Structures are given as C-alpha cells and as structure tokens.
Amino acid sequence: MVEIQIGENDRLDWALKQFRRRMIRSGLFKDMRRKRFYEKPSEALKAKLKAAERRRHKDRKRENRAQAAL
C-alpha cells in the first residue's frame, strides 16, 4: 500500500505528484492497467509467449551488434 504523509504546510499538488511517483515505482499502475479487463487464460499465455519472443529477438539484435563492432 502506498501512503504519503502530508504536513500542514505541504501543497496538495506536491502530495499528488509524490503519490503518483510512488505508485509507479511500486508497479501498481501497471498491475491496475493489466487487470482492468478480464483476459482469458489462453490469451494471457499468447501474450506471455509473444513478449518472450520480443525479448529473445531484442537480445539477438544486441548480440549481433556487439559481434559486428568487434
């Protein structure tokens, strides 16, 4: 749970900015966005496999660039 302590002299816009930053750092925004709509288990698996393939492709590109630089 994300909490912000506000003093008497603190501005509301500052507190909202701090709250938003802490929410982002904790990963709750991503989690809320991901859980906003129901996703069938088969669709979740497809998305997971697609993300893994993107990561592998990106890693291969980096390796190729590193080898080409040598």
Task: Describe the SSE topology.
Elements: H1 12-26, H2 28-34, H3 41-69
How would you explain this protein's 3D organization?
This protein has 70 residues and is an all-alpha fold. It has two domains: 37 residues; 33 residues.
How many individual β-strands? 0
Q: Taking all residues together, what is the mean pLDDT?
A: 92
Number of helices: 3
- Secondary-structure element sequence? HHH
- Sheet/helix structural class: mainly alpha
Gyration radius, in Å: 20 Å
The fraction of residues in strands falls at: under 5%
Q: Report on the biggest sheet.
A: none
The number of domains? 2
Low-pLDDT parts are none
Portion of residues within helices: over 70%
Tell me, briefly, the overall form: flat
Termini Cα gap: 48 Å
Which oligomeric state applies?
A: single chain
